[in-house]
Specification:
This protein is mainly alpha-helical. It has 3 domains: 6-42, no CATH class; 56-243, Lysozyme (Orthogonal Bundle); 253-310. It contains 13 helices and 4 strands. The strands form 2 sheets. The chain has a two-stranded antiparallel sheet. Strands 3-4 form a two-stranded antiparallel ribbon. It is globular and about 60 Å long.
Length: 326
């Protein structure tokens, strides 16, 4: 007697489910009141970044009105808008690193906009390392680093030294500008190499890097550079409503100059009142537990202060008022 009742119950459930599914299968629209945009929370809105008609890089005005340039720019603006975690971290880290980088670029005679090249190279991660072996904020290859005067070995890798790597990158950028006389071409050569860019300019008979037919990575590189500058001009416009407290503060350090070997860096760190981990974090160019220094080279080691170690977000100041909404 129970089986027929069970059969009837299953049929009822099936009919109810079918009634719910049929509108979806037939493409029926939802009631108009459910489509009212005023019913949606603003946090659910899809942000469509606007593509500017022109961009300025290192003082040069770049026309973005042609279909190819516009769509390539659009792609990179969309990428930065929706790579949420990476874009947010880059914005937060900029508050710590841009104040250190900008004076060096100015002193070296490099346009300030090249801080954005550093941003797309490493997302401002001091420990960034590519599968090919490029490392540091400026993603310099080992051989290139040595040619630019940086020390790279098992104990010291100055590609991770913020000041030294920036000056090495400036040296490369100035060499490239002496060859091309155009900063956008310089940026393209930073990604693809001067030899390849020079060869392509000759083969394609064009003068501007934006007009070159390039492999996708380098083609995107120049537009990524322009896009990240747009992002930093107004992050809130791209949906990143940051407050000052969200940004990473500059960490105050004291410095110590050493010219002799340090046998045990962990013990050295303890003698300075910090852990080995914090010593390495403050000096990412140190690559092991010892600093042999057989030649008596002069190294400057950063020691974070007690004040610097303690995190107080409410005291963080924004490097640029344009980055924050408070």
């Amino acid at each position: 007697m129970k089986l027929p009742k069970l059969h009837t119950f299953v049929k009822i459930i099936f009919l109810l489910a079918l009634g719910a599914i049929i509108p979806l299968l037939t493409g029926s629209r939802l009631p108009e009141q459910m489509l009212d945009k005023n019913q949606f929370s603003p946090t659910l809105e899809i942000i469509i970044p606007e593509v500017p008609e022109k961009a300025i890089f290192a003082g040069e005005e770049i026309d973005l009105r042609s279909y190819d340039r516009r769509e390539r720019m659009d792609r990179e603006l969309l990428a930065f808008t929706y790579m949420h975690s990476n874009t947010l971290q880059t914005l937060k880290r900029a508050n710590r690193f841009f104040p250190q980088i900008e004076p060096i670029l100015k002193e070296e005679g490099i346009p300030d906009d090249f801080k954005y090249l550093m941003a797309i190279e490493s997302s401002l991660n001091t420990l960034a390392r590519s599968p090919a072996g490029a490392a540091g904020l400026w993603q310099i290859m080992p051989q290139t680093a040595r040619e630019l005067g940086l020390e790279v070995n098992d104990y010291v890798d100055e590609r991770y030294d913020i000041e030294k790597s920036t000056r090495a990158a400036c040296k490369y950028l100035k060499q490239a500008y002496a060859k091309y006389g155009n900063w956008m071409l310089v940026s393209a050569s930073y990604n693809a190499g001067q030899g390849r860019i020079s060869s392509l300019l000759k083969k394609q008979n064009v003068e501007h890097g934006m007009d070159l037919y390039l492999v996708e990575e380098t083609s995107r590189y120049m537009f990524r550079l322009l896009a990240v500058k747009e992002l930093f001009k107004n992050p809130a416009h791209f949906g990143f409503a940051l407050r000052s407290e969200h940004l990473y503060p500059i960490i105050p350090y004291t410095t110590e100059t050493v010219t002799k070997p340090i046998v045990d860096l962990a013990t050295y760190a303890q003698s300075k009142g910090i852990t080995y981990a914090r010593l390495r974090d403050a000096n990412p160019w140190l690559r092991g537990y010892t600093l042999p220094n057989k030649t008596g080279k002069r190294y400057i080691i950063r020691i974070p202060t007690t004040e610097g170690i303690r995190y107080e977000p409410n005291k963080t100041k924004a490097h640029s008022k344009d980055w924050v909404v408070d």
